[in-house]
Design a protein that fits this description.
16 helices; two-stranded parallel sheet; eight-stranded parallel beta barrel
Length: 488
Amino acid sequence: MARFPEGFLWGGATAANQYEGGWDEGGKGLSVADCTTYKPDVDKTDYQALHGITDAQVKEAEASTDTHQYPKRHAVDFYHRWREDRDLFAEMGFKTLRLSIQWTRLYPTGTEEEPLEAGLRFYEDVFTYMREKGVEPLVTLHHYEQPVYLADHFDGWYDRRVIDLFVRFAKTCFARYGHLVKYWLTFNEIDSVFRHPWTTIGYCAERYPAEKREEMVYQSVHNQFVASALATKALHEMVPGALMGCMLTKTTTYALDCDPRNQVKAQARNRENMFYSDVQVRGAYPIWVKKYWERMGIHVDFGLDDEAILAQYPVDFVSFSYYNTMVDCVDAESHEKVGGNLATGVKNPYLPTSDWGWQIDPEGLRFSLIELWDRYQKPLFIVENGLGAHDTVNADGTIDDDYRIDYFRQHITAIAEAIEDGCEVMGYTPWGCIDLVSMSTCEMSKRYGFIYVDLDDEGNGTYDRSRKKSFYWYQRVIATNGEELGDL
């Protein structure tokens, strides 16, 4: 009996701001990601140092044309090499590829009345070529690529006017690409609004009074919830049969031990994590969130029809990123900490740790799939998962990344076990199927891909692509629909 269903969507995942480059070509405007800097020496457990930004730093970025300090501006040059990359993905046997559309490539400030034809044509050419190669696009509309103009002049997503601007952008995408794209996502890792609000909602904290910041973040994410529902409504009306998903950072938290206080602490962390998918899937706010607002004196403005809109237009499937699990306890500050996908937690003594301090937990993926399936009973899609590691190029140009193969073997096995447990899983797109610029530190040395890109942390290199050992291993996995996971 096959472990994976027929039609399972094997593939890989990217994001335009880390992959595309061409930051000032075709009329593209500046995005919040174009303001993030290269910072390899930052403490990886200090997410404020990794993701915080000051008003002065924003202004400096807006005035600069530098691409060394701002590596996402050049990324790995997909903008000029997309045909080559698509051929490599097709050679691997991809059924789908996750990628995003940069809002600023269509609407440079987000406020223009008409989109740029150059941007529209670029993505149309990409999607058309993917289709010709048998690769289904999985498209994210908002992947940390909001126009800087909206952050400066609209307070980012705090301003309800941005809802209409985003929905116009989404409708433009559906009208132009609806015949090419069946699977869509609204907001990447929408739960990250508190962890890195600049890239998620265009919110530079120091611009606002400290006592208003939490309220502003909740207002911003509420506006994103409404925008997501309206975009889902528009997709269903404009592209019958197309599916919209939400996207969550799945940070499953374990209690450090069986102390009931630690169990309650972990439960609260998990509840907070799934608040964001609860609203988009169930179409309503959990009662505990509104009670929390009441206790804290937080006021969130709801439009007259907001609750009805959320209830009427939930997403069709639940997608999520999974890299690691977390551990929490009531005295967390007295324990050793580790990082992991833009969050920190207590070190789990039972798990190994990656080169970048992320703990590796394939069983946690099985646990997370079962938890999400039991909670929502909607199809699940793992749209990010992977191992960031140092890769060594051998003298003959080969790369023996057996550590990556071992990582994926364990996680794919966990997915198969969750499917056997009754979970409906649509597909699996490992993160950074080709080496990308890191989201947090903007490094290149933290490599995830099956495909190596000749580029170093300082921006030196040919940008040439080459196949790692894992390329051929994953090619076989896809060809056998997950049946062959052994060594090559």
